[in-house]
Amino acid sequence: MEPIKETMRALLQEMILPELKDIKDTLIRHEERLNSVDKRIDDINTHLIDQSRRIDEVREELSRRIDEVREELSRRIDEVREELSGRIDETNKSLNARIDRLYDVIVRRDEHTKLDERVTRLERDVQELKAKIAA
After folding, report:
1. Which of 83, 82, 79, 61 is nearest to 71 (CA)?
2. Residue range 118-131: mean pLDDT, rounded
3. Which of 11-15, 37-41, 93-97 has the lowest mean pLDDT?
4. pLDDT beyond 90 at 35
């Protein structure tokens, strides 16, 4: 029985040991690839964390700049509003002065017309009086 046992052992060693060696080599290659993939994933995660930090910094900077622009625009709008209010006030004063002057001119013209009518009446009365005196 011993020779059969030895023959079986030799046969198993010839068939199974090379197959086990191939499986072991394949397992080692897969582990190496898995380690490589893990390293790449870690590198990508590190890169993503860095990109996220940079995005947050850019977001903060943009927010700050937007606030500055908003403040500048509000200040400029207030300045323009004040300037326009001043100009409107000046225009209103000028218009009021012109309207007052126009009123004065119209009143004078009306007074002139009344005076002209009065002078005409007085001249007629004087003519009538001269005519009565001469007759």
Report:
1. 79
2. 87
3. 11-15
4. yes
DSSP-based three-state secondary structure for 1: coil
Tell me the C-alpha to C-alpha distance, in Å, between residue 70 and each of 59, 77, 131. 16, 10, 89
* DSSP letters for 87-114: HHHHHHHHHHHHHHHHHHHHHHHHHHHH
pLDDT the model gives residue 50: 97
Q: Which of 77, 98, 95 is nearest to 87 (CA)?
A: 95
Tokens of residue 90, six digits: 């000046």
pTM: 0.48
Query: CA-to-CA distance for 124 and 130, rounded, in angstroms?
Result: 10
Is residue 53 pLDDT above 80, yes or no?
Answer: yes
In angstroms, rounded to a whole number, what is the distance separating the alpha carbons of residues 71 and 82?
17
Cα–Cα distance for residue pair 57/23, rounded to 1 Å: 50
